[in-house]
Design goal:
Helix content is 31%, strand content 25%. It is of the alpha/beta class. It folds into two domains: 4-41 and 201-267 and 359-415, FAD/NAD(P)-binding domain; 53-96 and 133-193 and 270-355, 2-Layer Sandwich (D-Amino Acid Oxidase, Chain A, domain 2), CATH 3.30.9. The strands form four sheets. Strands 4, 6, 7, 8, 15, 16, 17, 18 and 19 form a nine-stranded mixed β-sheet that branches. β17 (297-301) and β18 (305-314) form a beta hairpin. The longest helix has 18 residues, at 144-161. The model has no long low-confidence stretch (mean pLDDT 94).
Length: 416
């Protein structure tokens, strides 16, 4: 008889984990409190760029960001009314803004994402159909200092981690690639091997594949209780409904901390709120996804629409769309273009990125619980790291081990 696994959370991490668990022979059920892939798994930029993977807390971030913190149109914003509740988490976050932790975190992320492209190619080979582009990633700049600093980071990354060396472009060379870039742009960097994909199509392809594999996908099932006998979870409850399984996996993104409390696990996780605007049939077209190096915003072109987005807002878990943050994105993007990105329809969106103080995912067995695992905390790289996370969690649940070094991502590290 197949062992039963319940995956709590139907975002891209939960879907990917369910896929690999099913391939490993498990009887898998996914419980999702709303609709599948409706939170951070949609509306994001869809970048699959291992060369960009670094922890959010980095040296100098605190000092350089003070001027941003209370400005609603800045790349990083802390809502004043939320600051008291965030103070403990922010204190932990700031302790990781140092060279040693940043280097260790970067090493860990690059190790875990070293086979990202191979995993995505394997998904395609297995019949998952989703929109993915392999045109590289273009970084453009208004300021020479920002360009030089970013170039230095990528050159170092190419030497240490084996990523490609960036192609350095003049402003005119940038405009040859992207004619709608304005004369304000003084230069750019191109990483030709990086990719981007349409996250909605990826989520839908997982959902369709899971149905075909016999995975049970249950929406509108919010877990309200986790029953423990000793150190083992035996069932979860969704109000009055009860679901038993041999193993459980918490993959509920920014909401994972709330579930963790039900089994006495303190997971310091906060929502890093991001915004985007999706423009259907835009009159201005682009060939490459672009990172706007001075304003920290981004542009992602897909087949049917273009998406602009960015920002990091710390205001707790809420889906309120702050119009000033949306306008801040529009203003950021307009500095780089000859014309505004407009289309037949625009959809404004916000999503809760799961953030932990050291900027690394949380992957593994929950401390002091024998059969419950957690996979969360991916911040801004959830889509990029979804396949490797799914494979890792499946291997841990199936074999108790992984081919990757998972010590930096251990769920028990916050209590050390």
């Amino acid at each position: 008889m197949k062992k039963k696994v319940i995956v709590i959370g139907g975002g891209i991490i939960g879907l990917s984990s369910a896929y690999y668990l099913s391939k490993n022979g498990y009887d898998v059920t996914i419980l999702e409190k709303g609709n599948f892939a409706e939170a951070c798994s949609r509306g994001n930029q869809g970048w699959v760029c291992p060369a960009l993977h670094t922890p959010v807390p980095e040296p100098g971030l605190v000092g350089s960001s003070i001027k941003w913190l209370m400005k609603k149109d800045s790349p990083l914003y802390i809502k004043p009314s939320a600051a008291p509740k965030l103070s403990g988490w922010l204190g932990q976050f700031m302790t990781h803004c140092n060279e040693g932790d940043f280097k260790a975190g970067k090493d860990a992320l690059h190790h875990l994402s070293s086979k990202t492209f191979e995993f995505y190619d394997a998904l395609k080979a297995d019949g998952l159909e989703f929109e993915m582009h392999q045109k590289g990633m273009l970084f453009i700049f208004l300021n020479e200092k920002e360009l030089e600093q970013t170039k230095a980071k990528f050159v170092e990354s190419s030497k240490v981690y084996g990523h490609e060396t960036p192609t350095i472009l003049s402003g005119d060379e940038v405009r040859q690639l992207e004619p709608n870039i304005s004369g304000n742009v003084i230069g750019g960097l191109l990483l030709e091997k990086q990719r981007h994909l349409c996250p909605e199509t990826l989520a839908n392809s997982f959902i369709n594949k899971l149905w075909d594999m016999g995975v049970k996908l249950l929406c509108n099932k919010e877990v309200t209780e986790m029953e423990k006998v000793g150190s083992t979870v035996v069932a979860v409850k969704c109000n009055e409904e009860r679901f038993e399984a041999d193993t459980f996996l918490i993959a509920t993104g920014s909401w994972s901390g709330q579930l963790a409390k039900l089994i006495d696990y303190n997971l310091p996780i906060q929502a890093g709120k991001g915004y985007s605007i999706t423009i259907e049939n835009p009159k201005v077209r682009f060939s490459h996804p672009m990172y706007l190096g001075d304003t920290k915003a981004g542009i992602s072109p897909f087949q049917e629409y273009t998406r602009i987005g960015g920002t990091m807002e710390l205001s707790g878990i809420n889906l309120t769309i702050d119009k000033k943050r949306i306008q801040g994105i529009r203003n950021s993007v307009s500095k780089y273009l000859t014309d505004e990105v407009q289309g037949v329809n625009e959809v404004e969106w916000t999503g809760m990125r799961p953030m932990v103080p050291d900027g690394l995912p949380v992957l593994g067995l929950v401390p002091n619980v024998e059969n419950t695992f957690v996979a969360t905390g991916h911040g801004m790289v959830g889509v990029s790291m979804a396949p490797v996370t799914g494979k890792v969690m499946s291997d841990l649940i199936c074999n108790g081990r992984s081919d990757f070094n998972l010590e930096p991502f251990a769920p028990g590290r916050f209590s050390r």
